[in-house]
Amino acid sequence: MIPRYQAVIFAVLLLASVGMGVALWQLREHAHQRLLAGEDSAPTQAPEVAPADQATLLVANDSDGSLLTQEHSLPLPADAGSRARVLLGKLLDLYAAPEATHPVAGGAGAVAQVFLLPVPQAAAQPGETHPVAAPDAQQTSPQLAVVNLTGSFAASHPSGIQAEMLTILSICGTLHANLPRVTQVRFLVDGQPRSTLAGHADLTRTYLAGDAAPQP
Question: What percent of the chain has pLDDT over 70?
Fold first, then answer.
């Protein structure tokens, strides 16, 4: 004969199993009805994106070695570093297009990061002191842009002093045209210093962004 407490436990477990089965069946029927009714569980509003803004790109042209200004409407983030990356991504997308005037593979994915840093001040001589910048001056002080490119971009870049320098100067000029505080640019590849872009253009130096002026 089954003890009474075991019979009670069995009955409780049986009732719980039946209850769970009914609940699962109801959930299944509800999902089935939603599917038949064509309900869409996706969000009713699209995710917010950055507002479109006017951007100036300095686009290289291999036929005459020039940099020409192009205006584009782009969704640009408010953050300056993110803004710089979007700008350079669009520039390199133009170079990766089939009819590019400066063909370079890689596109926007070739820009891993862009860091914006204060331009280092010259070291003080013994007995000299540098004045502390006022808060307003810090908002307009010059910046150094550190552009971190991917190794695959550098490996596939066309070799040659003109081709490499056009890429570098167009990057510098595009940054300065849209972010005037960027006065200097340095380059990394996969987060590390690299001697040249593709065998010729020097990546160990700091470039002056204002030197990359568009052709009239």
Answer: 72
pLDDT at 108 over 60: yes
Q: Is 170 exposed, middle or buried (0-12, 13-18, 19+ CB in 10 A)?
A: buried
pLDDT class of 11 with cuts at 50, 70, 90? confident
Q: CA gyration radius for the chain?
A: 30
Find residue 66's DSSP bridge partners: 61
Q: d(Cα 132, Cα 33) in Å, to the nearest integer?
A: 69
**d(C-alpha 175, C-alpha 187), whole Å:** 13
Angle at 148 between CA 161 and CA 55, to 5 degrees: 85
Instruction: Please enumerate in sequence order all residues whose Cβ is within 8 A of that of 212, keeping only pairs 6 or more positions apart, or say none.
Output: 58, 67, 169, 170, 172, 173, 176
Using alpha carbons, list the distances in angstroms from residue 50 to 92, 114, 174.
20, 18, 19
The string of pLDDT tens digits covering residues 51-63 is 789 999 999 999 9
- Token representation of residue 84: 């710089």
